Structure formats: C-alpha cells, structure tokens
C-alpha cells in the first residue's frame, strides 16, 4: 500500500548542516557531562513546577486550555531546552525523508522500529523540526513511573505507562491503560500524537529468539533485523481516539523507519546492554550526555489514515486487520534496514526529499526553565536565610543557657560525686565490719536459751533417776 500525499503531512525546507560528533574525554569532558546532568534535572524540576501549577489552577477551570498549556509551556519547552537546546548543544543531524506529522492535526499515532534506548530522543527531535513536539505523548514502561522528577512530570503531562506483566510492575491491563490514556489526551481541540513501539522492546538476541518463535507459531513473517510487531497497543490507541468521537478518517498513522549512521546490522546480545561489539558508533543514553551522537540519524516517515488500516471499520476484526497491516510495514522496514547496513542509506523506493538537517539551539525555553529553577532555589535560600535570622536570638539564648547550665551543673555534680564517694565507702565498710562481728561473736554474747538453767555456757546435767 503506497502512502498517500495529503494535507495532513508537513512539507519543509531546510539547509544542510553537518558537524563533528566526537565524544568528550578528560576532566573537562567529565565536568561538562556533570553540568549537563545538573541542567537537565534543573529544567525538569522547573517543568514539574509549571505542570503542577497548571494542573492545580487551570485544569479545574478548563481542561482543554490546561491540556494546551501543558503541551505548549511544559512539554514543548522541555523538549526545546533539553533535546535541541543548549543543555545538549551538539544535537544530532537528522537525515529526513517522507511525510512528517503536521502540528495542527488533532489525532495522530507515531509508530517506529525500536533499535536503541535513544529512539524516543531522536523521534522527539524529528517532531521538533515541524513544531509537533509539544503534542507528543510517549508510551513508556511502568519502571519509569516512579523515577523522581522524570516519572512525576511524565504522569502530569499525560504519558502512558504499560507494565508488560513484569514482576515488579503494577497489576494492570496494558491494553485498557493505553486506551484510557489516549482518550484522556484526545479530548478538546489540542492536537495529540501518541508515540509507541509495536515491537515492545529494543532488538537483542534474546528478544529476537522469542520473536521468531512467536512469529512462527502465528504463521507471521519473521524479520532478519527486526522483531515481530504486536498490534494490541496500536489498536487500543485507535480505540482511545474513537471513544472521543474522532473518526478513523481523521486519525493519521505516521510510520517511521529509523536507523543510525554506522549501523551494520548487528543484533546485540542481552548481556551487552546498550553497548555493542560491532556497531560501536551507535549512540546510547550515556553518550548523549558526552555529546557523542554519531554523524546523523536517518528517518523515513510514511503517513496513512487509520481508515486505510482497518478498511473503514475498527469494530470488526480490528486486531487482525492491524496485524496484517503492521506485518506489511515491517517487511518494508526490514528491507530498508538491510539496505542501510549494506549501503549506508535506505532504498530508493522512499519518497520525499531527503534533507540533512541540524536544528539550532532554542535559547528561550532553556532560559525560561533555567530561570525558574534558579529562581526557585534563590527563593528557597532567601526564605531559609530569613528563618535563620528570626531564629538566631532563640538559638543564641538556647546556646547561652546550655553553656551556663554546663558551668553550674557540671561542677556541682562533680562535687556531689566526690562527697558521695567516701560516704558510700564508709557505709560499705561499716556494713562489712558488722557482718564480720556477727559471724565470729562469742556465744556469751548470744541470748540465753530456754534449755539452760543458768547463764553459763555449759548445759545443766540432770542425774538419771535411781
């Protein structure tokens, strides 16, 4: 099925831009990494405060306006500041082709192959190119829900969490949770774009083995470099939109195939984590803070209407239709990935202009978030200083009283112990002397017994009768 060019996609013009992506080493590099981490935490803390204010004071009045403000002043500003701004200034070059999400659309689902733990980062930057980054809502693993700052703000802005039935995750129905989460952000006029990865996890040997077994049992195509996609989450997202009276014709599905420069087709072992033996140029979360993004990220996007996926009817065999449609898309993706591993680019079948693009730094969002963070710290420090000044007389009086008590009480206690020591020793000595005398005293000192006729010490001898 060939993608259809329509008004729901965005056309753009950009000048090519290249740049070095070498990682930073040495003490200066470590200092910069530490500074970037601090700045990311600070920007996230400021965004969290802004989200709390909007949730507490705007949502009770108008949820539609509150949702729009969350997207515009929290999600978009954070993405501009952290992903494309001065915190990580050496952002990736994006080599784009196809049809990108339009920021003025109300409903959209962005699906992509899941290769690295940084996929969401670069897809968010792709949305930033066309101004749709504020509308992005990501489907995350439940592990992220309780992460301080990051998990808190993700819940506030409408991100969706799935457990995938992991041992320590919440007991929940992931399909119902996706449908509920999409329905929550689909209401009103604010656009929303749901990012989910149908493969469910990044490609690795263990997941690939399980995926091939699953595909064989379901008589579905197996892929050389990808995992078999699952359709339940995708169908649930569509149903979430439909539950808010969004027609299938108005739900746009953006199918993104992404790959990284230096990719040679390696499927890493699980014990490698996010490190690789062969494709060492591929980025990961740690390398992002080092400024090592690689040369560029290749992304091709094809846009479809959900009515094309489900043949106009979501209620009848919706999951089966979605599975067949995803299988066709993943066969195309696998061909693109193999072509990239061999030639360094996708096949010529990809339509659309290919532009190597590097987004400029967005200083205003970074300044706003950083100013809010530093302002909050300065305010807290000022309040603490005032409290210290107010409590200073009490603290001084308490310290003086304690010192005076120590000067008076401690010597008295010492003198008392010195006087009490000999007294206790004398009492103890008298007690021992008394016990000794009692044990060795002469029988003459004892009280006379009734068995004796005199006070002598010898008993009276009574002569036996004659």
Can you put this structure into words, describing what you see?
- The chain is elongated and about 115 Å long.
- The chain has an eight-stranded mixed β-sheet with strand order 6-5-7-4-8-9-2-10, with helices on both faces.
- The protein starts with 8 loop residues before the first strand and ends in a 26-residue tail after the last helix.
- It has one domain.
- Helix 5 packs parallel to helix 7.
- The chain is built from eleven helices and ten strands.
- By secondary structure, the chain is α/β, with parallel strands linked by helices.
- The N terminus is likely disordered.
Which tags fit this structure?
disordered N terminus, alpha/beta, two-stranded antiparallel sheet, 8-stranded mixed beta sheet
């Amino acid at each position: 099925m060939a993608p259809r060019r329509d008004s729901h996609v965005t056309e753009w013009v950009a000048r090519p831009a290249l740049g070095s992506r070498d990682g930073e080493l040495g003490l200066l590099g470590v200092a910069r990494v530490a500074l970037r981490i601090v700045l990311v935490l600070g920007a996230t803390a400021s965004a969290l405060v802004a989200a709390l204010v909007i949730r507490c004071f705007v949502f009770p009045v108008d949820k539609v306006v509150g949702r729009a403000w969350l997207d515009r002043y929290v999600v978009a500003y954070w993405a501009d500041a952290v992903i494309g701004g001065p915190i990580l200034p050496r952002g990736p070059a994006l080599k784009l082709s196809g049809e990108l999400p339009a920021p003025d659309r109300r409903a959209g689902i962005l699906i992509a192959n899941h290769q690295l733990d940084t996929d969401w980062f670069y897809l968010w930057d792709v949305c930033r190119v066309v101004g749709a980054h504020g509308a992005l809502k990501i489907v995350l693993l439940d592990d992220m829900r309780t992460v301080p700052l990051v998990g808190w703000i993700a819940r506030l802005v409408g991100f969706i969490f799935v457990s995938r039935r992991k041992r320590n995750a919440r007991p929940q129905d992931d399909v119902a949770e996706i449908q509920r989460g999409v329905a929550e952000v689909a209401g009103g006029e604010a656009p929303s774009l749901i990012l989910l990865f149908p493969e469910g996890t990044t490609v690795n040997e263990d997941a690939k083995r399980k995926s091939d077994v699953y595909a064989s049992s379901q008589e579905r195509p197996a892929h050389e470099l990808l995992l078999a996609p699952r359709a339940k989450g995708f169908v649930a997202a569509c149903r979430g939109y439909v539950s808010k009276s969004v027609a299938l014709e108005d739900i746009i599905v953006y199918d993104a195939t992404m790959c990284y420069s230096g990719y040679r087709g390696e499927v890493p072992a699980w014990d490698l984590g996010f490190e690789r033996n062969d494709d060492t140029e591929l980025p990961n979360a740690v390398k992002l803070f080092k400024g090592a993004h690689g040369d560029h990220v290749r992304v091709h996007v094809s846009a479809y209407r959900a009515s094309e996926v489900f043949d106009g009817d979501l209620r009848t065999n919706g999951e089966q239709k979605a599975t067949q449609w995803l299988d066709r898309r993943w066969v195309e993706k696998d061909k693109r990935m193999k072509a990239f591993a061999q030639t360094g680019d996708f096949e010529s079948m990809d339509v659309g202009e290919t532009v190597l693009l590097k987004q400029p730094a967005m200083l205003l969002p970074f300044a706003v978030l950083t100013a809010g963070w530093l302002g909050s710290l300065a305010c807290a420090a000022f309040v603490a200083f005032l409290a210290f000044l107010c409590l200073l007389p009490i603290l001084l009086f308490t310290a003086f009283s304690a010192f005076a008590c120590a000067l008076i009480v401690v010597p008295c206690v010492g003198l008392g112990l010195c006087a009490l020591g000999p007294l206790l020793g004398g009492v103890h000595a008298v007690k021992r002397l008394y016990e000794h005398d009692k044990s060795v005293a002469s029988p003459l000192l004892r009280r006379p017994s009734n068995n004796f006729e005199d006070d002598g010490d010898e008993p009276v001898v009574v002569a036996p009768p004659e």
